[in-house]
Amino acid sequence: MTEHRPSHAELNAFLKAEFPQNRCTLEEVDETDGSVVVAHPVGESELRPGGTVSGPVMMTLADVALYLAILARIGIVPLAVTTNLSINFLRKPRADRRIMARCRLMKLGKTLAVGEVWIFSEGEDEPVAHATGTYAIPRER
Amino acid sequence: MTEHRPSHAELNAFLKAEFPQNRCTLEEVDETDGSVVVAHPVGESELRPGGTVSGPVMMTLADVALYLAILARIGIVPLAVTTNLSINFLRKPRADRRIMARCRLMKLGKTLAVGEVWIFSEGEDEPVAHATGTYAIPRER
Amino acid sequence: MTEHRPSHAELNAFLKAEFPQNRCTLEEVDETDGSVVVAHPVGESELRPGGTVSGPVMMTLADVALYLAILARIGIVPLAVTTNLSINFLRKPRADRRIMARCRLMKLGKTLAVGEVWIFSEGEDEPVAHATGTYAIPRER
Amino acid sequence: MTEHRPSHAELNAFLKAEFPQNRCTLEEVDETDGSVVVAHPVGESELRPGGTVSGPVMMTLADVALYLAILARIGIVPLAVTTNLSINFLRKPRADRRIMARCRLMKLGKTLAVGEVWIFSEGEDEPVAHATGTYAIPRER
Fold this sequence. Notes:
Four copies of one chain form a homotetramer. Chain A is α+β, with helices and mostly antiparallel strands and 141 residues long. Chain A has two helices and eight strands. Chain A has helices spanning 8-18, 55-74; strands at 25-29, 36-40, 47-48, 52-53, 81-89, 99-108, 112-121, 129-136. Strand 5 (81-89) of chain C pairs antiparallel with strand 5 (81-89) of chain D, so a sheet runs across the interface.
């Protein structure tokens, strides 16, 4: 496993390059528990009629948060791929706030990493969604 | 439960209105088993470096396919919301083909609908992803 | 929603009556956040060759913990049923310790409750499994 | 990957040895698509008050069916372990019939196998539950 832990800036640069279409930004890397906070803006393109943030936007955010939580620990490994993602939608997010995901890994094995993601409307206490996901980590790196 | 089953054209019109940003199109409604086929184009915006269709695009497609399979059966009920979606990514999709989702409901209850979605690269036999999802159906309609 | 919150003893009595075959016991109800701790003994009947606690034992524990966390909040409602359970197995549990589940609800709505369960070998810090589950709550009670 | 495909009898013998407490039996191995059918008796020990087959019994059946579907393909590899299982409960099973699981693999990779399981009350058409699960396959064998 690589020893180099990428910086916050390196991770954001990688994110821009790897997922050029998505609008997530890495906000925070917690050095103590390795959790990351990732944000997604909410505007016209993220809303459905009625003012709900669309489910796919939250799934995108969960997937990116998991990916960044892994890369923050193992270094930038572009070949890690999601094998499974499961999400529960809990409450309606606010239409006028960014959505924020906090992801923490529950397991970082040699071939699989499993993490949990809580999604909130920025500044709110009650989660709007919760996801768990598994990434397969390529064997040789 | 409403008796009116919307036409293929009505469903596509609703999709355009409800999810204006997404690029899914309803391709087929099977009258015998109620399954639907939904397509998503694959181009620059759907690909990650290396030529993989991004996971969030497949999750979007799965979510839309579930939603349309339900609406095809109960009529256009804009307030149905996803409560849970779980997806397994199985194989790398092709970069030069649309991705196609076939969704069939396993249960259509009064308050919950549960469906299964198989995702393929157009014209290929082996699935690239499989999802199951639950939608909550509003009580009064 | 019923106002009566059942006592620890009432919940354990219900558990014995409702699931007579299973060997889970309610250990703790946290009044502040409503979480519950449920234990399952580990002996010959729970082990597979090699000394692993079998997956189904952990799934049983997760399901019971979710059920009790809900009943602790809404009162004893025998008709609540699991609609979905998703579990990730993270590490090998110890063969010589009970397994303990801590469950906290993420959402308690009128018709659906969603909870998260962490499973540990008693006295250990690292979780052996993590589950999320949804229960449907009967409308009239 | 081992070439030897175990016989129906070998799989049942292994099942008895590996999971001595559980009461599943392998009923069928379909040579064409590799699917397996596994049964579980339903009696006093499987029922909850009200005559419902308990959720954990169905989860056990799903897990065993996945395991046997994998072993039927790769040979008897005792170290394969479940990493994830997700189940949707769809309908109330009958109290007076066995429950039957049909499992088919969607992917059999070098390190991960993913399968789908449909559960029925014996002789009935409508599924009572649907599960998907992932097994990690040990690297050297």
